[in-house]
From TrEMBL:
<dbReference type="InterPro" id="IPR050090">
    <property type="entry name" value="Tyrosine_recombinase_XerCD"/>
</dbReference>
<dbReference type="InterPro" id="IPR010998">
    <property type="entry name" value="Integrase_recombinase_N"/>
</dbReference>
<dbReference type="InterPro" id="IPR002104">
    <property type="entry name" value="Integrase_catalytic"/>
</dbReference>
<dbReference type="InterPro" id="IPR013762">
    <property type="entry name" value="Integrase-like_cat_sf"/>
</dbReference>
<dbReference type="GO" id="GO:0003677">
    <property type="term" value="F:DNA binding"/>
</dbReference>
<keyword id="KW-0238">DNA-binding</keyword>
<feature type="active site">
    <location>
        <position position="197"/>
    </location>
</feature>
<feature type="domain" description="Core-binding (CB)">
    <location>
        <begin position="28"/>
        <end position="131"/>
    </location>
</feature>
<keyword id="KW-0159">Chromosome partition</keyword>
<dbReference type="InterPro" id="IPR011010">
    <property type="entry name" value="DNA_brk_join_enz"/>
</dbReference>
<dbReference type="GO" id="GO:0007059">
    <property type="term" value="P:chromosome segregation"/>
</dbReference>
<keyword id="KW-0132">Cell division</keyword>
<dbReference type="Pfam" id="PF00589">
    <property type="entry name" value="Phage_integrase"/>
</dbReference>
<dbReference type="InterPro" id="IPR044068">
    <property type="entry name" value="CB"/>
</dbReference>
<dbReference type="InterPro" id="IPR004107">
    <property type="entry name" value="Integrase_SAM-like_N"/>
</dbReference>
<dbReference type="GO" id="GO:0051301">
    <property type="term" value="P:cell division"/>
</dbReference>
<feature type="active site">
    <location>
        <position position="225"/>
    </location>
</feature>
Length: 354
């Protein structure tokens, strides 16, 4: 727990989602890079809240490292960068072997290759900005991102989805206020029906889901990751759930224009949604962690399993690259293998057929 209050400059940066613990450790005279980068990401890059939070936290980690090493942000070279990535990866980049690093500073831990790649991207973007603004002659971040393997997306089996939706109903959730149950069911139905990202769902307003007759729309155009526009479709169960929620939404005394509000009437946050899903995960007895993106994985997997063309699924997900969508075909193949092993007599072991 931080006992001392953050300075006004640090408090302003905290509003972007930066770690208050880490901000507390950073000297006041090292805040300027974060302020410069936040302005650039907001105004020129028009980045999403998620990108802004991630990239600024990545730069904050690097600034803490520079502070510990007593180096200036403008005096960075390849050797120092390799030292930093050795520390967060546990791999000596100059010798390509394990070092056992990452056990020193309490706020610095060994990171996965995927996280390292994102941190490298954040630093490249920051130093590219400094070159553009004439503060450096060349970008010192020339390292290649580490290779990483994509894990297969985790989808929600149909039986577990049914159990989850039943758990949001009044008879099984009598201790939860009706308006919150209806809100929760509407969010879950929308996530599964549309394949939307969490940020896209939470940015909706009531007017976005209503037509000129006051009915819930069956499709709508949204702007997603990378400012890419796409059309999402809303199935009848989701439309009914949203209509039922909107009927009781005034009881929450909304103070926000957001469609989904919390119990105090404020806009529901990503963290708030995760806490809600954790509640239903426990009550529904699900086998795997119920994080919001699993609904998007399930949306894509179910479409492909039922014969949808992969390019159509790509369009519905808003993926810029087909290769991003193709990972779901691996999930579908694994499911087909399971059906084959369980159903075909020649696929079963002698012990199973005995």
């Amino acid at each position: 727990m931080i006992r001392d209050e953050l300075s006004p400059r640090k408090a302003a940066l905290k509003n972007f989602g930066l770690s208050p613990q880490k901000l507390h450790l950073l000297d006041e005279n090292r805040l300027e890079p974060l302020e410069r980068f936040s302005m650039y990401l907001q105004v020129e890059k028009d980045g999403s809240a998620h990108t802004l939070r991630s990239y600024l936290n990545d730069l904050l980690d690097f600034l803490l490292f520079l502070q510990e090493e007593d180096h200036d942000v403008l005096a960075v070279d390849t050797i120092l960068l390799r030292s930093y990535f050795t520390k967060i990866s546990g791999v000596d980049f100059s010798r390509n072997k394990a070092t056992g690093a990452g056990t020193g500073q309490s706020l610095m831990r060994t990171l996965s290759p995927r996280s390292q790649a994102r941190k490298l991207s954040a630093l490249k973007t920051y130093y590219r900005l400094l070159v553009r603004q004439g503060l450096l002659e060349e970008n010192p971040v020339t390292m290649r991102a580490p290779k990483f393997y994509r894990s297969l997306p985790s989808f929600i089996p149909a039986q577990e989805m049914d159990s989850l939706l039943q758990t949001t109903e009044g008879e099984t959730e009598s201790s939860r206020p009706a308006e919150l149950q209806l809100r929760d069911r509407a969010m879950i139905e929308m996530l599964y029906s549309t394949g939307m990202r969490v940020s896209e769902l939470l940015s909706l307003s009531p007017s976005r889901v209503l037509d000129h007759n006051g009915e819930i729309v069956s499709e709508m155009r949204i702007t997603g990751k990378g400012r890419k526009d796409r059309v999402v479709f809303i199935g009848d169960p989701a439309r009914r759930a949203v209509a039922e929620y909107l009927a009781v939404r005034p009881r929450l005394r909304p103070k926000s224009e957001s469609l989904f509000v919390n119990a105090r009437g404020g806009a529901l946050t990503d963290r708030g949604l995760r806490e809600i899903l954790n509640h239903y995960e426990r009550n529904a007895g699900l086998r795997k962690r119920l994080y919001p993106h699993r609904f998007r994985h399930t949306f894509a997997t179910d479409l492909l399993n039922d014969g949808a063309d992969i390019r159509q699924v790509q369009e519905m997900l808003g993926h810029s690259s087909l290769s991003t969508t193709q990972i779901y075909t691996s999930v579908s193949r694994e499911r087909l293998k399971e059906v084959y092993r369980n159903s075909h007599p020649r696929a079963k072991s002698p012990r199973e057929t005995a």
